[in-house]
Amino acid sequence: MSQEERDWLDWLKRARDGQVTQKWVAEKMGVSDRWVRRLLAAMMEKGDGVVGHGLRGRQSNRRIDEKIRERAMEIVKSPDWHDFRPTFASEQLAKQHQIQVSKETVRKWMMAEGVWQSRGRKLREVHAWRPRRSHYGELVQWDTSDHDWLEGRGEPVPHLVRMIDDATSRSWGRFVQRDGTRENMGVLWEYVTRFGRAVDYYTDRDSMFTVAPRPGESKEQQRLADRLTQIGRALRELGIGWIAAYSPQAKGRVERSFLTDQDRLIKQLRLAKVKTMQGANEFLEKEYWPEWNTKFARPARGEEDLHRPLAEGFELGSALSHVEYRIITNNDTFPYYSENYQIVREDVQAGMKRQSLRVELWLNGELKARYQGRYVRIQKCGTKPPEASKPAPRKEVRKDHNAGGKSHWMDGFWNQPSPPLWQVIDQ
């Protein structure tokens, strides 16, 4: 019995005993005099329970049918749903089985069945709040989550590379086999092709994005050295800025989104029976990202989209490649990882010898070379032949090899008869 009901009962008893008038009680209770008289009459039969609601203890007319509850709990207790939480279970019951019940109802059912236990929330360390950027495409957080996304089914799918817009939380990403430069460049290639070039990217300080300072090197010396990783060089050539995060909390938006992925995405992949990398990426593209962006994305404060298209004629594959520089030798060749390559004769230019050549290994494995901004054709010329072995040392040759300085090649020359001189002249 509530405190209000207790007050009502006290006033009704006072009116019954004649201590106060029924009109005064009606004013205090906020009801009519007639209603007070009906309550006093019912009090003779029901006693103190007259102040309670008439439907108390009875089942609601809007109560969910027991068969629906049993069906829902049968699904929740199945092996594929063993780690579903109430909120996600409620969404999947509606999506896959057309059982429309609220998350709180599912929570009560799961607790009654012993499937879920209520847990108190713990206070966490509070970090300084950073407001969202105001425009879509102004800042994109970029990170990778390492997890067994398919739970050991079929092909290993260990890494999810994700990009989430800071202003809107719109997300996109890909599963990859390795968290390396090549794979992250591939994800960046597809993002730029789909959405355009963001203004800035916000990442951690992994070795893919930044070069570690040398021992004893100051911040100013590091800035002047301007050493870049392959991804850092690619972002600079694309005209995209890079911002380093110095803690996981600094890029908390993408970190929190991975917690959601590790809860929801894993279960959805399980229900969809996905077993391959290709199938997982197709599920992301067709199911997960559209659902995520519909449910969690929010409008930006500014209406303008700051993603920029690529300039006409810009070679995206050149920027997103592994770039190194080589010196052209005198015979118009250059070495590249234990192989020698020859510049095709038709593309040889005057003054190329001893000049720098930009060598690009594209993501598709194709090797290209660029000299002074123009591509030149190259061909492999085989490995460098081994150096010839030196001959065994011999005795020093005598300068007087003709036995005292006399040669025998004219021996007997003067003994041969010759024709008279006049005969030789006449001939």
Can you walk through the features of this model?
The protein is α+β, with helices and mostly antiparallel strands and 427 residues long. 35% of the residues lie in helices and 14% in strands. Strands 3-2-1-4-5 form a 5-stranded mixed β-sheet, with helices on both faces. Strands 6-9-10-11 form a 4-stranded antiparallel β-sheet, with no helix packed on it. It is elongated.
Strand order of the largest sheet: 3-2-1-4-5
Portion in beta strands? 5-15%
N- and C-termini, Cα separation: 157 Å
Could you tell me the mean pLDDT? 84
Descriptors:
12 strands; 427 residues; alpha+beta; four-stranded antiparallel sheet; five-stranded mixed sheet; single chain
Sequence-ordered SSE layout with sheet pairings:
Elements: H1 3-16, H2 22-29, H3 33-46, H4 66-76, H5 86-97, H6 103-112, E1 139-146, E2 159-165, E3 171-176, H7 181-195, E4 200-203, H8 219-225, H9 230-238, E5 241-244, H10 252-271, H11 277-296, H12 316-319, E6 322-327, E7 333-336, E8 339-343, E9 356-361, E10 367-371, E11 374-376, E12 378-380, H13 421-426
Parallel strand pairs: 1-4, 4-5
Antiparallel strand pairs: 1-2, 2-3, 6-9, 7-8, 8-12, 9-10, 10-11
Would you summarize the structure shown here?
The chain contains 13 helices and 12 strands. It is α+β, with helices and mostly antiparallel strands. The protein has a 5-stranded mixed sheet, with helices on both faces.
